[in-house]
């Protein structure tokens, strides 16, 4: 049953094609981001500086990587609460192995393998034993945090020249601006994530499983591969984000990244991905990460808020984002 | 047991492509299949027949690896197989459309048809090729929809066709269609049959389940009949009459179908206040202004093709969607239906065409499902007393012959037809004055269908008004006092169901003025 | 908020960026208040940012301070490690940095001008020394050994580690003293109470509670009272911080000894900042003025406490 | 025996019993309960009393989860309740007076109901995903609590207030009595009226429920209000327990414990069927676990590991699939390989 030559009706249909509604939330998030930046520039001097935007990437590279992994998981209808702890564990492994004199390459491999393994393990438990993702990954979260403490309860500095150079290096951009190598890594991860999710069969299956797991199963899709796969990817991304975080803070610490899983989840959802799965884009996650970063930038440019007003403002800004987005994407029909 | 018909001698010319022997499957409390044998030959269309709950879908799921088999063997092309999952059976060349449309409504039409087999270029999915391939499948089915549109935006009938499209795209040697025609209209069915015949010509073995006997006799070569999970027999289609087949299915004589009295159309007392009077009801993009009057005890049949706006009209009447313009008067008082609750308060009931998404509450029991609406209208503070509960549940399980007759059974474990009966009962329990039935007989076996039709007639005779929507024109005509014909989301005719109104006349009406299914007034 | 745009009209007005850890305890909010008020009095424009206990947030705000070209940056690091990169950026931008309350663990001491704060190890040591000095008076139940249970701060936090270390070091002077159990109470009253409850049941004859802060000590008091014992008498309690509630309990005889950890760093910080901006030399380590309180001292000091 | 093992609550209860047994072995006095000063005293009583806040929050959470939602804001709401009550008491001229206590409790509960209305509004009217809608309050709520207390831990001297969390009535801890009363109230509301059925229906298939005439929106809204109410009462308990409002730490991460309790009790996060008894067992289990760690002397460094292992084991034991895999290597039974969910 191969496809015959295109009939006129088919070509007409292709031409009639218009971007479906599912791009709407992302569009809304991006529009909001632009709007908020406009507002910030009007209000605070120095806010409009392109370096401020670049710093959003510099300061949130790890969150972007984390968000990409989380996007896979959420799109497939799951959730991964372990990512924050895995970031902390990764910094601990990195710092302690480097302290023990391992070469950077070996450290990187060790961290990535550990994160990926943990992710796979959770995926296996979730798929084959039917344990709810929330619980399996919550256990993963405790486990990773516990392992951190076993390695050391104190923070460990990273003094390895290789990693230090990576951390403190800059990638100059025209106009005297710069980003860090971490940003490049994050953008590469982002691009790969977008490719896999939007342009490969694996990616399509992720959406299908998120839309309806039973349908995907009955359609003969490889549900097991996808369900275990997304947690593996998320584990890998968390480990990578952990490395970036280790570079960002040049240290390993058991208490790093407490609650970062919520940031990652929030970024993904603000970016328009449905928490129930099946709908969303990686680009949205980037918009979500940048939106969260912008809130922080906003507040630190203000500089007059006391601790509690900071928290309240974060909540209020978050609210404004989601409400506006919700209103923009409310079904027209 | 004496059979009216003798099974055909099992001298098949060609070796069967699928051979199942001694299949047994049990669910907690139900023996769904007992020692069933089944053969499917290459190049034949084989109908699997049986009442609701006879075990047809279970047999299909046993064959395709959805359920593990307790006992028995499955051989495909001579080699024994035990499929662990639908993916395995697909890999062995079996392509299946399951009864409850199993697609991902969050994805596009094209994606749904090609998931797992997307055309690729340089390792990436080739979007254009995908759309083209999907488009050509849609063309084969004569479906004029955008392959890039989201599946959720299409009514259930379109979704069913898309599911069939997906199965066609698989280059399979066995094609299984579990009630593919249940929500299709005559036109769509004809197109599907044409495709099926072509495939048969190419040597594909097709397993086909349908409750429409006419369709079965039109398309199938042989048939296998199941009853209560047991094999009754295997027959060449030509060798049995419809009546004999029905008796084989239900194990007794059928109360004849055409005993329903013809309704005199003229007995509507025009001077009385109508129960429901609708003026200019419309909704942007879905329905153009419709006027309608419904009197007590009247059955209004609505005829039309796929997407003609029948469901939309019903939803507006029920407040499931809100109308942009128009008014609804119930017994002379103006009502505004913002939510279904308003309509329920006005004693209007609505049984949706999309049983799975809008009807059943899968994880609740049959009893809870039965009483849901009654409970909702009583309010949470006044639970139905246990005794009343038990009485109502027992009464309606019996009245509608719901099987298994176990109030504590989970709704998700009922066969499709029995779920439909539960939903009907859910509404009848609330004693409505107007009952809107959108495709109530979809997926219902011939015995049950008769029961439901008789029920409608009886309810109408008792003074209940009914709006009856069905893809089966014969059914509409048999039951209604008035017939409303819709096309392109507008009412095009509204006339008493007298002798001049025939299936042919309605089809003509719909056809007049160009191709009905294509037109899209606000595209 | 105050939406006056940042103006550098008066070239002599100093802008300070202050990156606080968070508002995780009463001690911390007192510290924040002190900084904010001192800035006002000293005529320094304060850009305040709250990191909510996250190092990455603190790095971000320091980076944003650099972007905003403040004159001086002060911060209490969430952790000791990992500040080199951003401090280097500050150095490149010629913005001096002052650490408050907690140190950073960096080989390059030119990255900051001064560190103003107390020494947690010393605090622990002071607590231990007092216990040693008590001698057999601390053996409340006269069984010949002094059994201590320790309520640790948040696992891995610098004050928890250092106070434990200092205490254990001082404790060695008396072999009769032994820590029988040590658990984290997360620096909170509730945590202190719950851990103490289980200590009281799993350990017999507890003589002394050493709590890493007042709040856990106050929680322990509740637990001890609920068990029908008298805090301060049947079980002795040593804590660190000297916040108002702790001092009140001390004056009431429910706590036996408190080592002060002074949060009022504001005035000292502003003084340092002015000097640093003016280019004057400042000492690399400035200790906060701190004392210790026993029950008698608490009664007199209590009326004058402002936090 | 087989039937017993198949009971949904068998494994959580068994895990709870094992945990208690472990404690009893390590600390012989663990199981002893004696009367001291006219009230019951002992580790078991402590566990019960300390589990009261989690149980309360988990009760509200159970209903929220049953409607396919989740409420992350409970910890912050608890903090606000404690803050509001303590600030009112601390600011009143007669701290110890009963009228002060009553108004304080009324204020706290009132505020919480408002916060619940707010959450419910965001979820059911605006249509924001529950996790994000409640994340807003989770973040801002602690700020509000600190705003109320001005960032300080507010200590109160009110014997009446202390009773809520740490007092005794007829030898029994008041906290337990309150939690059990709310439990009983919830159970009656859910199972003696039709509320439970309607909630489950909305959680399983919201659209079908709406078409069946259920006020899906109102129900969703109500469960968030109820959840906030429970969180508020829990917050009062937490504050009363130490006679102080700690805006930062009161109820910190209690949402995770509560969700864990709900899930261990057998309620699925996918919504629908819920079990209040399960939640009760789950809450007990979590508190016993928390008590066990210091009692058996696990070093602070390892307590997360211990928790992780226990949670994994309990969840695996509960999973029918895992049990089937453990029991035998026979081919699968004729069960659908995946649950069919409504689109
Ligand atoms: N997953 C399940 N668990 C328990 N019982 C089931 C399950 N699936 C089907 N059954 C029961 O098995 C019997 C056969 O059902 P099946 O779906 O095969 O019927 P069917 O012939 O396809 O009917 P219909 O025409 O209504 O689709 C019915 O009694 C049904 O209630
Ligand atoms: N052939 C088609 N091509 C494009 N759109 C269609 C087609 N058929 C149905 N639709 C969609 O159906 C919607 C209206 O359908 P509605 O469900 O009201 O019709 P219906 O007459 O009840 O059909 P059904 O037989 O599915 O119940 C339209 O908005 C349109 O999107
Ligand atoms: Mg079937
Ligand atoms: Mg329809």
TrEMBL record, chain A:
<feature type="transmembrane region" description="Helical">
    <location>
        <begin position="254"/>
        <end position="274"/>
    </location>
</feature>
<feature type="transmembrane region" description="Helical">
    <location>
        <begin position="104"/>
        <end position="126"/>
    </location>
</feature>
<feature type="transmembrane region" description="Helical">
    <location>
        <begin position="307"/>
        <end position="328"/>
    </location>
</feature>
<keyword id="KW-0812">Transmembrane</keyword>
<dbReference type="Pfam" id="PF02653">
    <property type="entry name" value="BPD_transp_2"/>
</dbReference>
<feature type="transmembrane region" description="Helical">
    <location>
        <begin position="281"/>
        <end position="301"/>
    </location>
</feature>
<keyword id="KW-1133">Transmembrane helix</keyword>
<dbReference type="InterPro" id="IPR001851">
    <property type="entry name" value="ABC_transp_permease"/>
</dbReference>
<feature type="transmembrane region" description="Helical">
    <location>
        <begin position="23"/>
        <end position="40"/>
    </location>
</feature>
<keyword id="KW-0472">Membrane</keyword>
<keyword id="KW-1003">Cell membrane</keyword>
<feature type="transmembrane region" description="Helical">
    <location>
        <begin position="228"/>
        <end position="248"/>
    </location>
</feature>
<feature type="transmembrane region" description="Helical">
    <location>
        <begin position="52"/>
        <end position="74"/>
    </location>
</feature>
<feature type="transmembrane region" description="Helical">
    <location>
        <begin position="176"/>
        <end position="197"/>
    </location>
</feature>
<feature type="transmembrane region" description="Helical">
    <location>
        <begin position="133"/>
        <end position="156"/>
    </location>
</feature>
From TrEMBL, chain B:
<keyword id="KW-0677">Repeat</keyword>
<keyword id="KW-0067">ATP-binding</keyword>
<dbReference type="InterPro" id="IPR017871">
    <property type="entry name" value="ABC_transporter-like_CS"/>
</dbReference>
<feature type="domain" description="ABC transporter">
    <location>
        <begin position="270"/>
        <end position="513"/>
    </location>
</feature>
<feature type="domain" description="ABC transporter">
    <location>
        <begin position="18"/>
        <end position="253"/>
    </location>
</feature>
<protein>
    <submittedName>
        <fullName>Sugar ABC transporter ATP-binding protein</fullName>
    </submittedName>
</protein>
<keyword id="KW-0813">Transport</keyword>
<keyword id="KW-0547">Nucleotide-binding</keyword>
<dbReference type="GO" id="GO:0005524">
    <property type="term" value="F:ATP binding"/>
</dbReference>
<dbReference type="Pfam" id="PF00005">
    <property type="entry name" value="ABC_tran"/>
</dbReference>
<dbReference type="InterPro" id="IPR003593">
    <property type="entry name" value="AAA+_ATPase"/>
</dbReference>
<dbReference type="InterPro" id="IPR050107">
    <property type="entry name" value="ABC_carbohydrate_import_ATPase"/>
</dbReference>
<dbReference type="InterPro" id="IPR027417">
    <property type="entry name" value="P-loop_NTPase"/>
</dbReference>
<dbReference type="InterPro" id="IPR003439">
    <property type="entry name" value="ABC_transporter-like_ATP-bd"/>
</dbReference>
UniProtKB/TrEMBL annotation, chain D:
<feature type="transmembrane region" description="Helical">
    <location>
        <begin position="168"/>
        <end position="190"/>
    </location>
</feature>
<dbReference type="InterPro" id="IPR001851">
    <property type="entry name" value="ABC_transp_permease"/>
</dbReference>
<feature type="transmembrane region" description="Helical">
    <location>
        <begin position="96"/>
        <end position="118"/>
    </location>
</feature>
<keyword id="KW-0472">Membrane</keyword>
<keyword id="KW-1133">Transmembrane helix</keyword>
<feature type="transmembrane region" description="Helical">
    <location>
        <begin position="130"/>
        <end position="148"/>
    </location>
</feature>
<keyword id="KW-1003">Cell membrane</keyword>
<dbReference type="Pfam" id="PF02653">
    <property type="entry name" value="BPD_transp_2"/>
</dbReference>
<keyword id="KW-0812">Transmembrane</keyword>
<feature type="transmembrane region" description="Helical">
    <location>
        <begin position="72"/>
        <end position="90"/>
    </location>
</feature>
<feature type="transmembrane region" description="Helical">
    <location>
        <begin position="219"/>
        <end position="238"/>
    </location>
</feature>
<feature type="transmembrane region" description="Helical">
    <location>
        <begin position="278"/>
        <end position="298"/>
    </location>
</feature>
<feature type="transmembrane region" description="Helical">
    <location>
        <begin position="250"/>
        <end position="271"/>
    </location>
</feature>
<protein>
    <submittedName>
        <fullName>ABC transporter permease</fullName>
    </submittedName>
</protein>
<feature type="transmembrane region" description="Helical">
    <location>
        <begin position="47"/>
        <end position="65"/>
    </location>
</feature>
């Amino acid at each position: 049953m191969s496809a015959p030559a295109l009939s006129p009706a088919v070509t007409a249909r292709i031409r009639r094609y218009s971007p479906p509604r599912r791009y709407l939330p992302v569009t809304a998030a991006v529009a909001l981001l632009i709007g908020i930046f406009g507002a910030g520039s009007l209000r605070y001097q120095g806010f409009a500086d392109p370096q401020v935007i670049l710093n959003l990437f510099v300061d949130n590279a790890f969150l972007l990587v984390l968000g990409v992994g989380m996007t896979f998981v959420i799109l497939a209808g799951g959730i991964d609460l372990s990512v924050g702890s895995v970031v902390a564990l990764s910094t601990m492994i990195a710092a302690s192995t480097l302290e023990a004199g391992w070469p950077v390459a070996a450290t990187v491999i060790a961290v990535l393998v550990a994160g990926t393994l943990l992710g796979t393990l959770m995926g296996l438990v979730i798929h084959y034993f039917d344990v709810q993702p929330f619980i399996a990954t919550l256990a993963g979260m405790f486990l990773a945090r516990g392992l951190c403490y076993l390695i050391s309860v104190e923070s460990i500095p990273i003094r390895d020249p290789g990693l230090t150079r990576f951390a403190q290096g800059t990638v100059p951009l025209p106009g005297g601006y710069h980003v860090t190598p971490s940003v490049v890594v994050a953008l590469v991860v982002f691009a790969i994530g977008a490719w896999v999710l939007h342009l490969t069969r694996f990616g399509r299956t992720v959406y299908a499983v998120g839309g309806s797991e039973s349908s995907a199963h009955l359609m003969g899709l490889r549900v097991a591969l996808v369900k275990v796969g997304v947690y593996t990817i998320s584990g890998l991304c968390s480990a990578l984000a952990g490395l970036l975080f280790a570079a960002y803070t040049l240290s390993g610490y058991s208490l790093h990244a407490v609650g970062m899983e919520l940031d990652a989840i929030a970024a993904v959802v603000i970016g328009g991905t449905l928490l129930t799965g099946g709908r969303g884009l990686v680009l949205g996650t980037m918009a979500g990460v940048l939106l969260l970063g912008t809130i922080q930038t906003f507040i630190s440019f203000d500089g007059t808020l006391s601790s509690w007003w900071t928290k309240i403002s974060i909540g209020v800004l978050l609210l404004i984002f989601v409400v506006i987005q919700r209103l923009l994407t409310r079904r027209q029909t | 047991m004496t059979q009216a018909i003798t099974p055909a001698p099992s001298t098949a010319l060609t070796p069967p492509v699928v051979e199942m022997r001694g299949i047994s499957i049990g669910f907690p409390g139900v023996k769904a299949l007992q020692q069933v044998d089944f053969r499917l030959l290459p190049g034949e269309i084989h109908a699997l027949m049986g009442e609701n709950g006879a075990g047809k879908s279970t047999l299909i799921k046993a064959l395709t690896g959805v359920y593990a088999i307790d006992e028995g063997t499955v051989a495909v092309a001579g080699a024994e197989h035990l499929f662990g999952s639908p993916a395995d059976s697909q890999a062995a060349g079996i392509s299946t459309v399951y009864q409850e449309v199993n697609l991902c409504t969050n994805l596009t039409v094209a994606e749904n048809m090609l998931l797992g087999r997307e055309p690729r270029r340089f390792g990436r999915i080739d979007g254009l090729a995908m759309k083209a391939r999907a488009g050509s499948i849609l063309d084969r089915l004569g479906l004029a929809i955008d392959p890039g549109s989201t599946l959720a935006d299409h009514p259930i009938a379109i979704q069913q066709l898309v599911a069939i499209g997906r199965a066609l795209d698989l280059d399979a040697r066995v094609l299984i269609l579990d009630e593919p025609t249940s929500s299709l209209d005559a036109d769509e069915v004809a197109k599907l049959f044409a495709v099926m015949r072509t495939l048969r010509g190419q040597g594909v073995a097709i397993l086909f389940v349908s409750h429409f006997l006419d369709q079965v006799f039109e398309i199938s070569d042989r048939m296998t009949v199941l009853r209560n999970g047991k094999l009754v027999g295997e027959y060449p289609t030509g060798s049995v009459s419809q009546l004999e087949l029905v008796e084989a299915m239900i194990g007794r004589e059928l109360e004849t179908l055409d005993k329903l009295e013809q309704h005199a159309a003229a007995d509507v007392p025009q001077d009385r206040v109508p129960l429901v009077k609708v003026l200019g009801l419309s909704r942007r993009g879905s329905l153009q202004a419709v006027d309608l009057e419904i009197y007590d005890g009247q059955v209004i049949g609505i005829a039309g093709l796929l997407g003609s706006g029948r469901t939309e009209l019903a939803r507006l009447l029920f407040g499931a969607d809100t109308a942009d313009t128009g008014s609804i008067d119930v017994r002379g008082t103006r009502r505004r239906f913002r939510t279904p609750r308003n309509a329920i308060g006005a004693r209007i009931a609505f049984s949706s065409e999309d049983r799975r998404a809008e009807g059943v509450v899968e994880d609740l029991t049959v009893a809870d499902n039965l009483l849901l609406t009654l409970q909702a209208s009583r309010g949470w503070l006044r639970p139905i007393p246990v005794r009343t509960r038990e009485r109502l549940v027992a009464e309606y399980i019996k009245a509608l012959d719901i099987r298994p007759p176990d109030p504590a059974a989970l709704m998700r474990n009922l066969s499709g037809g029995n779920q439909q009966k539960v939903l009907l009962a859910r509404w009848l329990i609330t004693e409505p004055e107007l009952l809107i039935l959108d495709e109530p007989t979809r997926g219902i076996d011939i015995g049950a269908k008769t029961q439901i039709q008789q029920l409608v007639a009886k309810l109408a005779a008792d003074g209940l008004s009914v709006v009856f929507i069905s893809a089966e024109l014969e059914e509409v005509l048999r039951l209604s006092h008035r017939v409303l014909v819709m096309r392109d989301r507008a009412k095009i005719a509204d006339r008493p169901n007298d002798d001049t109104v025939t299936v042919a006349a309605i089809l003509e009406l719909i056809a007049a003025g160009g191709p009905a299914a294509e037109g899209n007034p606000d595209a | 908020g105050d939406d006056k745009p940042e103006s550098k009209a008066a070239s002599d007005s100093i802008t300070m960026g202050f990156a606080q850890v968070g508002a995780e305890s009463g001690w911390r909010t007192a510290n924040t208040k002190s900084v904010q008020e001192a800035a006002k009095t000293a005529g320094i424009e304060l850009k305040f940012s709250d990191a909510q206990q996250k190092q990455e947030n603190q790095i971000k705000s320091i980076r944003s301070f650099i972007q905003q070209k403040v004159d001086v940056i002060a911060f209490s690091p969430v952790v000791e490690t990992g500040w080199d990169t951003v401090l280097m950026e500050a150095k490149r931008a010629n913005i001096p940095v002052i650490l408050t309350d907690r140190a950073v663990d960096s080989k390059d001491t030119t990255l900051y001008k001064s560190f103003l704060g107390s020494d947690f190890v010393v605090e622990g040591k002071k607590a231990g020394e007092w216990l040693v000095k008590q001698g057999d008076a601390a053996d409340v139940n006269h069984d010949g050994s002094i059994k201590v249970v320790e309520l640790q701060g948040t696992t891995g936090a610098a004050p928890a580690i250092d106070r434990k270390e200092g205490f254990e070091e001082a404790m060695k002077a008396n072999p009769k003293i032994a820590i029988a159990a040590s658990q984290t109470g997360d620096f909170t009253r509730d945590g202190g109470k719950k851990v103490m409850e289980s200590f009281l049941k799993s350990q017999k004859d507890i003589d002394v509670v050493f709590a890493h802060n007042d709040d856990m000590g106050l929680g322990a008091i509740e637990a001890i009272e609920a068990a029908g014992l008298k805090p301060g008498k049947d079980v002795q309690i040593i804590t660190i911080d000297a916040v108002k509630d702790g001092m009140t309990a001390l004056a009431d005889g429910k706590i036996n000894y408190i080592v002060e950890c002074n949060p009022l760093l504001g005035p000292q910080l502003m003084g340092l900042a002015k000097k640093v901006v003016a280019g004057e030399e400042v000492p690399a380590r400035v200790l906060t003025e701190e004392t210790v309180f026993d029950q008698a001292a608490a009664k007199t000091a209590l009326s004058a406490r402002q936090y | 025996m087989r039937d017993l093992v198949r009971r949904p609550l068998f494994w959580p209860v068994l895990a709870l019993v094992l945990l208690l047994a472990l404690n009893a072995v390590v600390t012989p006095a663990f199981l002893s309960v004696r009367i001291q000063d006219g009230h019951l005293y002992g580790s078991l009583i402590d566990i019960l009393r300390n589990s009261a806040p989690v149980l309360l929050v988990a009760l509200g959470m159970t209903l929220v989860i049953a409607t396919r939602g989740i409420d992350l804001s409970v910890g912050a709401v608890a903090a606000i309740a404690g803050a509001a009550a303590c600030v009112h008491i601390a600011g009143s001229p007669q701290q110890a007076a009963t009228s002060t206590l009553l108004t304080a409790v009324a204020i706290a509960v009132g505020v919480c109901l408002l916060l619940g209305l707010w959450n419910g509004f965001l979820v059911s009217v605006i249509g924001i995903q529950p996790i994000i809608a409640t994340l807003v309050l989770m973040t801002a709520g602690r700020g509000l609590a600190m705003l109320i207390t001005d960032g300080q831990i507010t200590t109160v001297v009110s014997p009446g207030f202390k009773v809520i969390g740490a007092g005794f009535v007829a030898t029994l801890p008041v906290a337990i009595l309150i939690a059990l009363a709310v439990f009983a109230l919830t159970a009656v509301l859910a199972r003696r009226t039709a509320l439970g059925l309607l909630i489950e229906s909305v959680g399983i298939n919201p659209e079908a429920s709406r078409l069946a005439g259920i006020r899906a929106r109102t129900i969703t809204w109500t469960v968030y209000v109820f959840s906030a109410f429970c969180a508020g009462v829990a917050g009062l308990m937490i504050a009363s327990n130490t006679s102080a409002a700690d805006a930062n730490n009161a109820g910190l991460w209690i949402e995770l414990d509560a969700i864990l309790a709900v899930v261990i009790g057998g309620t699925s996060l996918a919504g629908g069927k819920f079990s209040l008894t399960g939640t009760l067992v789950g809450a007990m289990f979590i508190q016993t676990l928390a008590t066990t760690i210091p009692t058996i002397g696990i070093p602070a460094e390892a307590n997360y590991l211990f928790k992780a292992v226990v949670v994994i084991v309990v969840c695996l034991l509960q999973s029918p699939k895992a049990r089937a895999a453990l029991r035998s290597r026979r081919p699968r039974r004729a069960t659908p390989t995946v649950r069919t969910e409504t689109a």
